[in-house]
Amino acid sequence: MNTAKPDPSRKSRMLRGDRRRQLLRCAVETFARRGFAGTKTRDIARAAGVSEAILFRHFATKMELYHAILDAKEDKQGAKLTRELENYAKRRDDAGLFRHLAASVFRSFREDPAFHRLMVYAALEGHLMASLFRERFVMPVGGYLRRYVALRQKGGAFRKCDPDLATRFVLSAIMHYAMNRYVFGMKMKRFPRSEEAITEELINLVMCGLRETSRGKGAE
Fold first, then answer.
1. pTM reported for the whole predicted model
2. Are residues 165 and 198 in the same domain?
3. Is the pLDDT of residue 7 over 80?
4. pLDDT of residue 72
């Protein structure tokens, strides 16, 4: 009978992929609490319960760590959202397209508020992560929405206006609610309804703003 005791050091060892994901999560949570200026690599290592040497073994530089954080987010989202929006666009389902966009944004904020809090810090501090996030996530979706708005304007479905401004109007309405609720912890006593009901009302307001209407008549 083998009575050898297990090596306690083995319990703390993790597979490389698992350790990498743990380090990324600790980095996001630490940056989100302290901001970029107030976070050192030793703080991230301490939060993960490892040495800085192990952190640097996975991420040689802070720049590599920044890109890895965005890579992990992109792996979850990637181009999936744009492909899903295209399905609504092909059917010219305007409300469905914006509703799906809002639901996707709300889900991202709800499931990963630390990441979005991190992006707020990045924007406030003028950090490189803010520009990387815009380049990799915001601009592709924003560019797609702008082209769609322009297309629907050309077809007479949307009112004539600056398509860039119209796109900002849509995204700002969605992002403002998501950020206030999931990042800043806005008390929901003012909004006792479900997220689905709020999404529906928000999209109704967006559509009223975008739709072309005859003078003196409401939107159809």
1. 0.80
2. yes
3. no
4. 86
